[in-house]
């Protein structure tokens, strides 16, 4: 049966790290590569982290109904899940792992016809999130402030998700995550602490 896993939460909460952990733990999963109009960052790879496209190309995909969901996550910066990615992964007999923003995840819940496991990675506190975003050093102070504003709105949506996991202690969060994912896909998982 076709299924998908959606991992979401505010920017800077550690969802990419947790997503990478799941991909390493479960070969049954494959990362759903999103399309974006933002610039490629140092260390990122086209087709691995994102498909980097122009705004007109993105708008074209919206018009052609090629996206399962899309969001203008930040001003003039679009992100979206390609329907073709999900098809590609299902054809490989794997489960797609979507690591996407909160409102995108909510739109997927409305649009998708297959069974999903939706996971919200919660912040410890707003102060801690600001510290993480600043330390990451990839955004300007102005962008950090915008992401903080967005996080306040996003945490209000967490009750729409199947599971909420607080990323305070990484090992604990990884264990909680792997346990629910293993159950969803019918895989074996033994606690990392054992
Ligand atoms: P970043 O620019 O830091 O890679 O990502 C910014 C935000 O966009 C993150 O919260 C990330 O999860 C989200 N994002 C990445 N891909 C998608 C997507 O396909 N759809 C939506 N709605 N959000 C996405």
Task: Note down, in words, how this protein is organized.
Helix content is 42%, strand content 24%. With 194 residues, the protein is α/β, with parallel strands linked by helices. The protein has a single domain, classed as Rossmann fold, CATH 3.40.50.300. The protein has a 5-stranded parallel beta sheet, sandwiched between helices. A hairpin with a 2-residue loop joins strand 5 (67-74) and strand 6 (77-82). Residues 11, 34, 38, 69, 71, 73, 79-81, 99-101, 104 line the site of guanosine-5'-monophosphate.
Give the oligomer, counting copies of the same chain as homo and different chains as hetero: single chain
User: How many individual β-strands?
Assistant: 9
Provide a count of the helices.
7
Distance between the termini: 31 Å
Shape: globular
Whole-number tally of structural domains: 1
**Share of helical residues:** 40-55%
SSE string, helices as H and strands as E: EHEEEHEEHEHEHHEH
Q: CATH topology, which one?
A: Rossmann fold
Can you tell me the residue ranges where pLDDT is under 50 for at least 5 consecutive residues? none
The neighbouring-strand order within the major sheet is 2-7-1-8-9
Strand content: 15-25%
Average pLDDT, all residues: 93
Structural class: alpha/beta
User: Which small molecules are bound?
Assistant: guanosine-5'-monophosphate
Measured on Cα atoms, how large is the radius of gyration? Answer: 16 Å
Sheet having the most strands = 5 strands, parallel
